[in-house]
Amino acid sequence: MPDVxxxxxxxxxxxxxxxxxxxxxxxxYSYIGFLFFVIPLTGIWGTTALFLLKDTLHQPAESxxxxxxxxxxxxxxxxxxxxxxxRWNPLGRRDQGFLILFSALLAIVLFATSILRISYAGLALLxxxxxxxxxxxxxxMRGLTSVLGQERLMSGRLSAxxxxxxxxxxxxxxxxxxxxxxxxxxHGVFGIAAGIAVAVAIFTLWRPKYIYDDPAEKAPVVQGNxxxxxxxxxxxxxxxPIVIMLFLWNFTPGVGTPMQFxxxxxxxxxxxxxxxxxxxxxxxxxxxxxxxxxxCPRVNFRRxxxxxxxxxxxxxxxxxxxxxxxxxxxxxxxxxxxxxxATAAYFGLLIRACPPGLHGTAMMLxxxxxxxxxxxxxxxxxxxxxxxxxxxxxxxxxxxxxxxLLPMLLLLPKHxxxxxxxxxSPEMRVAA
Length: 432
Hints:
- The protein is built from 23 helices and three strands.
- It is mainly alpha-helical.
- It has a three-stranded antiparallel beta sheet with strand order 1-2-3.
- α1 packs parallel to α8 and α19 packs antiparallel against α20 (391-403).
């Protein structure tokens, strides 16, 4: 818990204003935001790889979905790597050490790929290796975000910054990735990705004091009993319902591979249009991420959760009125706007629930559920689409899964949802 500048007792909560200056807040927002913006840009090769599978290696929709599910397995066990983050101090710099070490390794892997022959096995190895490296980088970024969010009572605002910053590279990658798949050789795309990874590795050498001088970042690594830590994580108030909510929210049979085939084969759109759809969809999350960042210090968190979830349930349904690739691009706008509040709220909730000393593990448990649900939803949607040829069934299946989020809200502990950003309930203060 940070130093307290002012504490005022209220009927059901204690309002705490930490001594964080405007300059410090801007530094924290900028650093965390830049990390979540620049590191995903190393994945510019993703769209090229998918179309290599589809068009060069002639893999059908179900095979591509199964491929993505299998090679993504490191993300499903990311919480184990979160344990590593909580117990290892690489280069003596904790989270910064992880960022330096694994960004450099990623640059080496991508450079090697840019000069080697491309094959099915090679693509599988690239996906697996980059995923493992990405999980270590992600555990450092998410663990650091959780530490700062709890210490400075900024869980909602940092969630909004994180999600907004992470959406920009998705937008850029969907546009540039589709363009690169059409106009740049695969080896050239991997070379560009390697260059970006080198730039990331250089950036991570910077050590801003407002970030890494935080007490939790400077504290010594504690080698606790893993079994007891697992129990403590599972028993952390609200952790299981929150992880289930993240799983449900990213289980989308109507997105991913079914969308790829729907837009390019049924609606006769180009690869660039497919990339543009994904870019518009991701880009339209950003205004509501920023709106959430504005609202969370001003509106009760529980109210925000309910409103965000009600808006999220029908998110995929605008695609039911789509008849060509151009109108699909229009439908992407309301779809993105309807999803931003929920995503920021659920990850802000995860930050609030992280138990002390297990920030990396808890955040990566949420990331593992997020990644696993994404691929399982993709496989489910691909089977539905292959069996029926009807994308509408994929869309309704997605909306049905989202509707299951509403009863999950009733299982959340009150002390996690009772306060605005910048406030702390008596239960949370005692726990800290």
